[in-house]
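In line with agreed milestones, work has continued on tokenised descriptions of protein folds. One protein thus recorded appears below exactly as we store it:

>
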Amino acid sequence: MSRYVVRRILLAIPTLLLISFVLFAILSLAPGDPLSQFAANPAVPPEVRENIRRSLGLDQPWPIRYVKWLIALAHGDWGFSFGSRIPVWDLIKLRIPSTLEVVGIAYLVSLLIAIPIGILSAVKQYSIFDHFSTTFAFMGFSVPTFFTGLMLIIIFSVKLQWLPFIFDSTLQVTDLSSLGAQVRQSIMPIAVLALFNTAVLVRYTRASMLENLPQDYVRTARAKGVAEYSVINRHVVRNSLIPVVTLIALTAPTVFSGALITEQIFRVPGIGSLLITSIQNNDIPVIMAITFTFSILVVLFNLIADLMYGVLDPRIRYD
């Protein structure tokens, strides 16, 4: 097991280096000037703009800037934001709590709901519950999140006036009243994200269960007199969760990268909205920090998924 993990880590290092190189090259060669706001300001003389460009290293070729960025990253320095002039990591730390409060909770809710629904839907195939769950999954998967978010805003904020439609990032939880306000403003963005994630996981879980239920090992276990509950939980569910674990590993990094559309709709000051703003301002250090962190998390969670395969299926060995 340890040799396998070491090999995967050693393979991940050049992969991440290649990803960082491609990302930096695309962002550096893309049209746009990070200092365009100064160019439109007549109060800023051209020599001042050049001094700012030189201090940020923008006067150097992008391969040299990439090497300097990589060396700084090796020392734990993500650089400074071109727009806000503060360290990139400090800027991201301000957004992480809002992202985890909304996207993280929504993802946990979808995991706790989707897997049991998918299992029960497959076991009770063609039942009323199965028809209801598959219809729910189809609707949740097909309807885009921006449409669901706008519908919730119209119903619960505009018509009924039960929930606020703008997320208040300055709210601090100090008592039961502020806790209630925090819960109320988080309900709709969490519901939008949880609906979509639950629909996707339900479809995958149900399809994987239906693929394993007719297998020979299931019929053999039943023929030996094993209880139906044990057949489902000890045999079918464990094998069916292998492709579901892959999906979870691919989608789990989105918890840290934020939800781009949902955060824009509800004005949640999370990582997703920060990424959108940074792209609009061509803020390369911030974009690189968010996208490269996402790449690291994807590689990490894929490694975790590989290790989980061995736990779910004893036939898988890493010798």
